[in-house]
Amino acid sequence: MVKICCIGAGYVGGPTMAVIALKCPDIEVAVVDISVPRINAWNSDQLPIYEPGLEDIVKQCRGKNLFFSTDVEKHVREADIVFVSVNTPTKTTGLGAGKAADLTYWESAARMIADVSVSDKIVVEKSTVPVKTAEAIEKILMHNSKGIKFQILSNPEFLAEGTAIADLFNPDRVLIGGRETPEGFKAVQTLKEVYANWVPEDQIITTNLWSAELSKLAANAFLAQRISSVNAMSVLCESTGADVTQVSYAVGTDSRIGSKFLNASVGFGGSCFQKDILNLVYICQCNGLPEVAEYWKQVIKINDYQKNRFVNRVVSSMFNTVSNKKVAILGFAFKKDTGDTRETPAIDVCKGLLGDKAQISIYDPQVTEEQIQRDLSMKKFDWDHPLHLQPMSPTTVKQVSVTWDAYEATKDAHAVCVLTEWDEFKALDYQKIYDNMQKPAFIFDGRNVLNVDKLREIGFIVYSIGKPLDAWLKDMPAFV
Ligand code: NAD
Ligand code: UDX
């Protein structure tokens, strides 16, 4: 029986390995992590991450051919294939701070693999890493190997949160990069056979190591670039009376462009886009390519601009101050169908409103008060470090309250901001919400999910990203 061990039981390691276990009953899969609470949660009824469809798979496979453990060394020692799916955060200090990927967790995993191994292994980069990381990892493994042979593969993960299981069941492609040597080709073939249990062979792309590593950064940069492009258009729409939804549709029906990923929003979030683009920018700078670095940096700049201008729009519409006004926030996760808040635009929007002394009341169906308070008190980039390294009792932001009920969050509020596109927000009783709010009552839809005409009929002053502006908003200087 082939044995797989995955180091890192996070948003990627957990779901990916659960699907491998489900699709390959002849493979034993162990997912290991240094975080005891995380592993305990994987072994409980309350999984550490919310992902539609995940719980069923874990329940089917756990204890049969899927195991979660903190005994990292034992499982690595026994494995034929070791996936490394640890976090690769943006560096917060030292050389490349604020841009470069911090490979501390990766390096310590590689050193541990070299230390404990007693048989040859294939080591798979599952984490997103800077191009050429495999070379560094090879050096660490070779110099500490005691004669054991390691083959490094790059097998970046393309799943998106909220749809992880569907993405893993039916990926657009699986990408495997390896050394172009007989041993390298053999290792690629071994991993290919794992995926071939459920992925059609022509969808398994094999490349050299550096192409695979760079393709992952490139894919995320292209995806984020589409969002920044449509968000840049949304500003122009507001100035001219064009409607960004109509523009996106008209542009996206060109088959060369395609319709996906053209939804204007308050800004993209999530653990990957910003981190990976900053990493790409840093790599370009290190390779003496300042023009290319600037080009990609602009994707982040537009995203920051979009979040700032949303805050400015809220404040300027409400007579240029939100001091002591209750502002309800509907949605805190970075997208629907996940409880993940890493780099969610809600953090920057809330911080902006708090800077103007608003009283904020937040409702998200999947995010706890503890998580929100932690996010709002944490420094930029500190979030992507293992939970056990994060402050246990962060300072509570007193102007913020969190509730499990949208009607309570919006009661007596001057304004409502929709920051995540949860389906349930479309079905709320907005007449009831309006009746219980201060007047004039404002709604700022950062996801373009609400029925603007209906809200206006009820009496709301409505702002929806990239849509023709209400007369009220036109009259208020927007400072965007
Ligand atoms: P995560 O923070 O959820 O999980 C990483 C886990 O690794 C943590 O639980 C941490 O405790 C553990 N870990 C760190 N060092 C360790 C060590 N030395 N030994 C054992 N465990 C260790 O991160 P994630 O979202 O799963 O992302 C992992 C990687 O995959 C990142 O490089 C990310 O960029 C990439 N990625 C993420 C996504 C996504 O949607 N989240 C998608 C594709 C790729
Ligand atoms: C992303 C990539 O899509 C995935 O391939 C990679 O493996 C990890 O990073 P993820 O961050 O989980 O996945 O979610 P994604 O669906 O890409 O959304 C990212 C952000 O962009 C979210 O905040 C989302 O709301 C926003 N977004 C997405 C838009 O604002 N508009 C869109 O049209 C699409």
TrEMBL record:
Catalyzed reactions per annotation: UDP-alpha-D-glucose + 2 NAD(+) + H2O = UDP-alpha-D-glucuronate + 2 NADH + 3 H(+)
Pathway: Nucleotide-sugar biosynthesis; UDP-alpha-D-glucuronate biosynthesis; UDP-alpha-D-glucuronate from UDP-alpha-D-glucose: step 1/1
EC number(s) per entry: 1.1.1.22
UDP-glucose/GDP-mannose dehydrogenase C-terminal domain residues: 328-452
Top-level EC class: oxidoreductase
Keyword tags: NAD, Oxidoreductase
Highest taxon in the source lineage: Eukaryota
InterPro entries, alphabetized: 6-PGluconate_DH-like_C_sf (IPR008927), NAD(P)-bd_dom_sf (IPR036291), UDP-Glc/GDP-Man (IPR017476), UDP-Glc/GDP-Man_DH_C (IPR014027), UDP-Glc/GDP-Man_DH_C_sf (IPR036220), UDP-Glc/GDP-Man_DH_dimer (IPR014026), UDP-Glc/GDP-Man_DH_N (IPR001732), UDPglc_DH_euk (IPR028356)
Metal-binding keyword on record: no
Pfam assignment, any one: UDPG_MGDP_dh
Family of the protein in this entry: Belongs to the UDP-glucose/GDP-mannose dehydrogenase family.
Record's protein name: UDP-glucose 6-dehydrogenase
Organism: Camelina sativa
Gene from which this protein is expressed: LOC104719584
